[in-house]
Amino acid sequence: MYLVINIQFQVNGHQFLAKSWNQFNTTSKFPPVFTVTLSSQTDEFHGIECFKTNRKWSHVSRRGGDVMLVDDEWKNAVILPLQNSEHLASFFCQIFYTHAVQRQILYFHSSLIKINNRALMFLGPSGIGKTTQAKLWSKYRDALIINGDVVFVQETDENFLGWGTPWHGSSPYCENTNVPIHAMIILKQDSKNSIRELTAFEKVTAVSNSVFYPRWLENGMELCLKSLDHLLTAIPVYELSCRPDEEAVKLTEETVFAKDIL
């Protein structure tokens, strides 16, 4: 199964994207839903203020001093000459999520691992240990780390799929694959290891902090909250207070896969 929101990128002979993006290239059989042109000239636009009122370009997105102009239907964009090439991936993420959220897909700040054809998501603020926990599962349980920073979760008729993406922050882990979500783990640092399943209200509070909301879309929040409600109704959420050790892995494994052990 594939998650294809094909972005066609037009640029004159420059490579601004990291090599990890190569594995996410699609073939020509998938028509583009969005076309991005990286401009090499500024004078052809006659200034940004002009384009704010231009009927073709109705959205202006900024990252630092860099600017992307987007049409009303989010099908075409022009990125003005970049001052910081790292902003290109950020613009692409905004484009992708604009179309993804309308396909029942949520964007999480999370790490994602695959074990026994099921996925665990580790959530929490930056620095809490999401990638550390993923690496522990890789070391002690031979889990595949799909992504250490950004995860897209797609609602399907059968389940919820966690997808690897070309966006992975400072984490090196970046796999183009998907796996059904088995459980979500909210991380807290502690001097001892303990785990508990969260109640319905607790789940909403804990998980929503890790969801990225497309506030630039008029109905972005509504779409996210609807998909999030479906996700939290179907998938268990646990709070893991832990040290970065194998015991935390063992405790989590015994808890979230308890039915498999019985």
How would you describe what is shown here?
By secondary structure, the protein is of the alpha/beta class. It contains 7 helices and 13 strands. The strands form 2 sheets. Strands 1-2-5-4-3 form a 5-stranded mixed sheet. The chain has a 5-stranded mixed beta barrel with strand order 6-7-11-10-9. Strand 4 (66-71) and strand 5 (76-79) form a beta hairpin. Helix 4 (200-208) crosses helix 5. The longest helix is centred in the last third of the chain and has 15 residues, at 220-234. It starts with 6 loop residues before the first strand and ends with a helix.
Largest sheet: 5 strands, mixed
**Whole-angstrom Rg:** 20 Å
| Overall residue-averaged pLDDT value | 86
Strand order of the largest sheet: 1-2-5-4-3
Total E-strand runs: 13
Structural class: alpha/beta
Low-confidence stretches: 43-55
Work out the helix count: 7
The percentage helix is 25-40%
Q: Which percent range describes the beta-strand content?
A: 25-35%
Q: Gist?
A:
With 262 residues, this protein is an alpha/beta fold. 27% of the residues lie in helices and 30% in strands.
